[in-house]
Design a protein that fits this description.
single chain; 98 residues; 3-stranded antiparallel sheet; globular; mainly beta; 39% strand; 0% helix
Length: 98
């Protein structure tokens, strides 16, 4: 498994990833006003669609994804939601290999 992360272009910021044996830890800086964070995973940079955080996301600023194969490269997106008068808004970070 590889952990090669680039700095995101916009929020959320400070995204880092650490490849561990059979897992990957993703961490980020808090986004002001965010209600929750959702981490999505894929094995291709063009298909990152598996939600790995619990339903409703996490309110913390890190998440460990377990049950991974050490010989596979994984790509992650970080989504955050925040309240809005009309709807919930969200933003995605670029994908990262981890």
């Amino acid at each position: 498994m590889q952990a090669a992360l680039a700095a995101p272009a916009g929020p959320p910021t400070g995204v880092t990833g650490i490849a561990l044996s059979g897992s990957a830890q993703i961490a980020w800086q808090p986004v002001s006003g965010a209600d929750s964070y959702v981490v999505l995973r894929g094995t291709s940079s063009t298909n990152i669609s598996t939600t790995v955080t619990p339903a409703g996301g996490t309110t913390g600023t890190s998440f460990t994804n377990t049950g991974l194969s050490n010989s596979t490269t994984y790509y992650y997106w970080l989504l955050y939601t925040s309240p809005s008068p009309r709807e919930r808004t969200r933003a995605l970070s670029p994908p990262y290999a981890g």
